[in-house]
Amino acid sequence: MPLKLEGCATAQTNSLLYKERKLTVCLTNMDNLVWILWCILGAILIVAEVFTSGFVLLWFGIGALAAAFAGIVGIHNLGLQFIIFAVVSVGLTLASRTIFLNYFSREHTGDSLRSGVDSLPGKIGTVVSSSRGAMQEGAVKVFGSTWTAYPAEGETALEAGERVRVERIEGSSIYVRRIDEGVDWRAQELPENSGGDERG
């Protein structure tokens, strides 16, 4: 009987070793799958960045790819891979905020980017309708749009065809000031040919 017990113990030990080896192979295969899952997550986040207005998902996609790279080079601890993902993602997000604020924003210089109606002050327009009435209301065309216009303080009534500069905006009206036109190249006549025409 003792022989049968030893055989049983050996069979159980072999069975445990087989299960342990099988578990090790399974965990190794799972470690190989984890980096692939990180790559898939990274690709999804980078592609999703195209469809969002913020600029954050790209950095988390790169963080996921960094975690995948860690898995490829032999860091199989999932917790450590997650820490790499978090540190890279948050670090890039903070760095991009600093980069965009310093190099692509005009906030730090005090010169703001103006668009639409806010960009009108300082622009040149042409009076298309002379001033009339007590308020001296006229019309000025600036960048293809016609605006209700009033002469700025100290200016006389506006006359059609005059060139004006937008001083300020109040509501949907603009206040303008005449500018010195200088020489208008369109109104100049061509000089007479004093040397004779060589063509004929």
Chain-wise SSE layout:
Blueprint: H1 2-49, H2 57-73, H3 78-103, E1 124-132, E2 137-142, E3 145-151, E4 163-170, E5 173-178
Parallel strand pairs: 3-5
Antiparallel strand pairs: 1-2, 1-4, 2-3, 4-5
Salient structural properties:
3 helices; 18% strand; single chain; five-stranded mixed beta barrel; 200 residues; alpha+beta; rod-shaped
Summarize the structure.
The protein starts with a helix and ends in a 22-residue tail after the last strand. The model has no long low-confidence stretch (mean pLDDT 76). By secondary structure, it is an alpha+beta fold.
Mean pLDDT: 76
Rg, nearest Å: 38 Å
Structural class: alpha+beta
Contiguous uncertain segments of 5+ residues: none
Q: For the report, how would you describe the main beta sheet?
A: 5 strands, mixed, barrel
Strand order of the largest sheet: 1-2-3-5-4
Q: State the helical fraction.
A: 40-55%
**H-E string:** HHHEEEEE
Q: Roughly how many Å apart are the termini?
A: 132 Å
How would you sum up this structure, described in words?
The chain is an alpha+beta fold and 200 residues long. Helix content is 46%, strand content 18%. It has three helices and five strands. Strands 1-2-3-5-4 form a five-stranded mixed barrel. It starts with a helix and ends in a 22-residue tail after the last strand. The model has no long low-confidence stretch (mean pLDDT 76).
